UniProtKB/TrEMBL annotation:
The lineage of its organism: Bacteria, Pseudomonadati, Pseudomonadota, Candidatius Mariprofundia, Mariprofundales. The chain holds residues 78 to 338 of 358 of the full protein. Coiled coil: none annotated. It comes from Mariprofundus erugo. Keywords: ATP-binding, Hydrolase, Iron, Iron-sulfur, Metal-binding, Nucleotide-binding. This is Iron-sulfur cluster carrier protein. The gene is apbC. The keyword Protease does not apply. GO terms for biological process: iron-sulfur cluster assembly.
Amino acid sequence: TARVAAGASARQAIPGIANIIAVASGKGGVGKSTTAVNLAVAMAQTGARVGLLDADIYGPSVPRMMGLSRFRPEIDVDGKIIYPLENFGVKTMSIGYLVEENKAMIWRGPMVAGALGQLLGDVAWGELDYLFVDMPPGTGDAQLTLTQKVPVTGAIMVTTPQDIALIDCRKGMEMFRQVHVPTLGMVENMSQFICPHCGEASHIFSEGGAARLGEEYQTSVLAQIPLDIRIRELSDAGTPIVAAHPDSAQAAAYCQLAGEV
Ligand code: ADP
């Protein structure tokens, strides 16, 4: 569309950042932030220089999941440079550092665009091999702003195997296709549950759907992450499982994902 085409010409690389990768989902609650956080930490463990930008302006999760919610970033006197907060080898920035945790964000589209533009442009990221961007769910203002303002290397779509999530994931991939951002692949989250008592695997949210959708869009499932209580507990506690238990099978799934990116 004209709107997208006009924006595309204004895309400006962020100096020092080699790859900007959107971690996106069609729908909320599928584990996009959990995936973004663990992927970023896993990538940092390979020795890469990694940043994580929380673009979920309405529901920022990065401060809590990265164990940084009690910290505030340093801001230069004239308010023009914001310094990222670092943990587990990953530099992070989130609107959540700048507002109170319990305060609702009631913003219209242009305000979202403005805030995201600032988080992209005014943060002293330094040299990064990868900047992962934890997107808000869906296909809204933040997606348009990101893809219009900066050259996005590609998008990773997070979905559960459930039909309703896959339908929305398809919409997300359509949107990225329209703005000429390649889908690097999909992550099937909560793909199976291993019973801690008997070890039996059950497919709580169905199975096989992501692979079928991937075939349709000529993209692949980069990793399958199990539905696992420790992933949730550690994420809530602010220590991603990849950092807390790097030798676990769950961490291995995220490390495999990092290897595929
Ligand atoms: P989204 O970013 O898509 O809204 P979140 O990453 O915030 O989703 O995840 C939603 C909830 O599900 C969180 O409580 C998170 O800890 C939990 N969760 C995400 N992935 C898993 C998983 N693989 N196993 C168990 N819990 C998970």
